Structure prediction request, 194 residues.
Amino acid sequence: MSAGEALAGPDGGLRCPWALSTEDYITYHDDEWGRPVHGDDALFERLSLEAFQSGLSWITILRRRTGFRSAFAGFRIAKVAAFTDTDRERLLADAGIIRNRAKIDATLANARVLAEWAPGDLDELIWSHAPDPAGRPAPKTLTDVPAVTPESTALSKALKKRGLRFVGPTTAYALMQACGLVDDHLATCVARRA
Prediction:
């Protein structure tokens, strides 16, 4: 077996190897990662969490997701856009989230930008960058999974052009993977879509 191939999980089913280190990862991998996500608020949440993940392990974010949702009003764009300096200070003191000033400020600024968009604009913009699945063979090993693609670079540029922050090409690709714009489950993974 080559490095990076799908491995048997606790139930014997083959999974992407990154998913097997904790039960939290197995559940996230099997039930969420790579599944289509639509809706401006839902995509704002994923975009925000991917930005908070930058430089950290995803498990760090995943285990704090409930805290993030509570701290950021369920990631409802209109509510976060109305946050005040008092809310910002509350977030900076909240041990249930990652207390990174630049990432908190970017999330608040992004909500204010997105609050000015028409309903559905964020969903439409993100999904307009989904590559044709027919042109993407299923990855056999983790080495076949890119960190950045032309589509994620284009998405990053489009988001930045519209005023969003902390949306580099790598973050954009992680968003594309998490939200089902691409299916990077390995070819033999039980969670790969048919």
